[in-house]
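wait is this the right file?? whatever heres the structure
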């Protein structure tokens, strides 16, 4: 494993009935960095995320976390190793309060996730940690609000609070600002910056302003292959990257 990397893929490949969605991707994510995975629609970004978290099985290649080969690990084993993922669609419990959402997530390590008949007793001990997570994303004043009442941007912030409460070593963010207005985007950028302190973040993101603002390293995918890699200043001037994005209205 490359020195200083928390996550590394070697020749990572995924084919679906002859269509190669990810082709020979060698990805190295440096510990403590914010690393962005970008590319036009259909470039294979979410497929890479699905491979890293073992929602998909690679056709070829290997995945290494902290020097260990996790290619054949199950999704729950990946999570137990400190890898936590958010999804493009906000995944929160709409009819629980903001505080209850985070507190329920914190039950998992205690093995009480499904002991709803003991909820008051088991959850009380976790409320302090849950409130700390909410404070980190500026949601503490809304702790008793029903989640269904939150605007979209605040729901994404709640999802981030939930993932941070699990104290991940590696945080995978899939389109964290998708569907947000300008004000919410700015707020979430600052939350991700704060979340990145002391941990590693790998994110898929279409908003180039967000990528430029946050990323230490950017990997550009096109047609499932690595097209370019480097700082924003480097990849934004790469003629191949500029050509890849021509005509992609969403970008």
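ok assuming it is, sequence goes like this
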């Amino acid at each position: 494993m490359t020195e200083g990397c928390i996550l590394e893929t070697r020749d990572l490949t995924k084919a679906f009935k002859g269509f190669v969605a990810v082709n020979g991707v060698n990805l190295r994510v440096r510990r403590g960095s914010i690393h962005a995975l970008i590319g036009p629609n259909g470039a294979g970004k979410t497929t890479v995320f699905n491979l890293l978290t073992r929602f998909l099985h690679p056709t070829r290649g290997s995945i290494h976390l902290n020097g260990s080969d996790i290619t054949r690990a199950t999704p729950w084993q990946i999570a137990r190793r400190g890898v936590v993922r958010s999804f493009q669609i906000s995944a929160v419990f709409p009819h629980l309060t903001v505080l209850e959402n985070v507190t329920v997530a914190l039950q998992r390590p205690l093995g009480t996730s499904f002991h709803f008949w003991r909820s008051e007793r088991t959850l009380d001990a976790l409320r302090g940690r849950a409130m700390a997570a909410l404070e980190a994303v500026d949601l503490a004043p809304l702790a008793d609000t029903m989640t269904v009442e939150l605007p979209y941007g605040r729901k994404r912030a709640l999802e981030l609070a939930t993932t941070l409460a699990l104290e991940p070593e590696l945080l995978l963010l899939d389109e964290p600002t998708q569907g947000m207005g300008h004000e919410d985007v700015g707020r979430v950028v600052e939350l991700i910056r704060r979340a990145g302190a002391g941990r590693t973040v790998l994110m898929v993101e279409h908003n180039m302003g967000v990528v430029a603002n946050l990323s230490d390293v950017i990997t550009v995918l096109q047609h499932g292959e690595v097209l370019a890699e480097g700082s924003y200043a480097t990849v934004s001037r790469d003629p191949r990257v500029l050509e890849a994005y021509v005509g992609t209205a969403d970008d």
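Residues 68 and 175 are 27 Å apart (CA to CA). so i think its the right one actually
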